[in-house]
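idk why but the lab printer keeps eating my pages so im just putting this in chat instead. protein + beta-D-ribofuranose:
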Amino acid sequence: MSARKIIIDTDPGQDDAVAILLALASPEEIDLLGITAVAGNVPLELTQKNARKVCELAGFPETPVHAGCDRPLGRPLVTAEHVHGKTGLDGPQLPDPVMPLQSRHGVDFIIDTLRAEAPGSVTLCPLGPLTNIATAFKKAPDIVERVQEIVLMGGAYFEVGNITPTAEFNIYVDPQAADIVFRSGVPIVVMPLDVTHKALVTSARNDAFRALATPVGIAVAEMTDFFERFDREKYASPGAPLHDPCVTAYLIRPELFSGREVNVEIETGSELTMGMTVADWWGVTGKPANALFIGDLDADGFFALLTERLARL
Ligand code: BDR
Ligand code: CA
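predcted complex ->
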């Protein structure tokens, strides 16, 4: 089977960084056409720079990185320095990138790429707020039916929320954008907190990254050391959840994951539950499924894949 063409839309973020590294390390399965940065964990100025730092760390400075939207569609930007640190990528000391930022806007890159490639051959992989994707769909409605699939990290059902009691960060930051994407009719695979909270970097798993003894392995271990302090305190869990790499791991080994086809709607009206992903897990509404909502993964298989692939870089 030929490698799947994808665009990663991202707000790095340590876990975004690991998701990008996994994609770059997996050319048999993933053909990364480009990266679009969005404002999220930290402002756009930092996320686009962090995306380039990660490409250079991986040894892929030719990867086209584009800056996209600098704020959500209809709300002020909410960021997460309390999790990811001031730079968004705190932990390792990575040099400032020398590879260029592409001049084209990220939204135009998404539109142009979907128009240039064969219909149904490009998968979008959002790892942050859905602003760039929704803006592209609004600006160029003809591209919507050309998307093969959207595989995204966002939302929660049983785990409910992490930034508010009822909302996961990526969806909360731009609920209007998420609403557009979930109503688009494009096949969607969702990696919600329900599954990512099972992808925990225990000490042993982080030691395995460090033991690679490569710049990539050491940087990933240092990133995890940094952001897991937050999750260990918050959830009293044995390690930090590696949210975003679930997206790229799914493209490589979908059999590691299981979930249900359900209807998902986004709360955009109530301030109390803003950004909630209302997933009809028990099929009580009779509304048609619009997403494969993942609930479980083979965590050992996931970390074995990750370690094996990071070792290649
Ligand atoms: C999501 O929010 C960000 O902090 C992470 O990078 C991940 O994409 C988890 O809620
Ligand atoms: Ca992210």
